[in-house]
Specification:
The protein is mostly beta strands and 161 residues long. It folds into two domains: 37 residues, Ubiquitin Ligase Nedd4, Chain: W (Single Sheet); 121 residues, Alpha-Beta Complex (Nucleoside Triphosphate Pyrophosphohydrolase). It is built from two helices and ten strands; from the N terminus they run E-E-E-E-E-E-E-H-E-E-E-H. The strands form three sheets. Strands 7-3-9-8 form a four-stranded mixed sheet, with helices on both faces. Strands 4, 5, 6 and 10 form a four-stranded antiparallel sheet that branches. Strands 1-2 form a two-stranded antiparallel sheet. A hairpin with a 2-residue loop joins strand 4 and strand 5. The two termini are 34 Å apart. The mean pLDDT is 94. Bound molecules: zinc ion (ZN). The site of zinc ion (ZN) has 8 residues, from loops.
Length: 161
């Protein structure tokens, strides 16, 4: 858990960890408040072109220098498809229109769930944004060094329809 609070937001007592509803959660020993944490939502896009897919070489700390499908976090209150298009534009310079949802990917203990869309290009110019070292299109059977093994699973699910 990367977002655990140390102190109770209600009464500022130091929180303790207790099993509540089958999971260890921070609990306030003074007022009894239990901290429940929501998942975070991220979105990534599969942008196909001539049988290849768009990928970015990451300039961010997590997976620096390795490749991944373009995407990022969805802001609270933001429409998921618009977040997807915003992230692709920021990272790759391409304007896209997200279409079919391929799936919602999650794993035990990971606070981030990832929505995956197929998106069609509608314009723009391919150029690495501030969060990318390089951008390019790759054959599915000749993928570069991936930051997240999940991307391979995501692409396999897309290819298998
Ligand atoms: Zn409290």
């Amino acid at each position: 858990m990367d977002q655990e609070d140390k102190f109770c937001p209600s009464c500022a007592a130091a929180l303790e960890t207790k099993d509540v509803f089958g999971q260890d959660r921070p609990v306030c020993p003074d007022c009894g408040r239990v901290m429940f944490y929501d998942p975070k939502v991220a979105v990534i896009c599969i942008v196909p072109r001539d049988g290849k897919v768009l990928m970015i070489r990451r300039a961010t700390e997590l997976g620096y220098g390795q490749w991944g499908l373009p995407g990022g976090y969805v802001d609270r209150g933001e429409v998921v498809e618009l977040a997807a298009a915003r992230e692709v534009l920021e990272e790759t310079g391409l304007k896209v229109e997200p279409g079919d949802l391929i799936g919602l990917f999650s794993e035990p203990g990971n606070p981030v769930m990832v929505a995956v869309y197929v998106a069609q290009e509608t314009g723009g110019t391919l150029a690495a944004g501030p969060e990318a070292l390089e951008v390019g299109f790759f054959d599915l059977d000749r993928l570069p060094d991936l930051a997240f093994p999940r991307d391979r699973e995501v692409l396999a699910k897309w290819k298998d329809g």
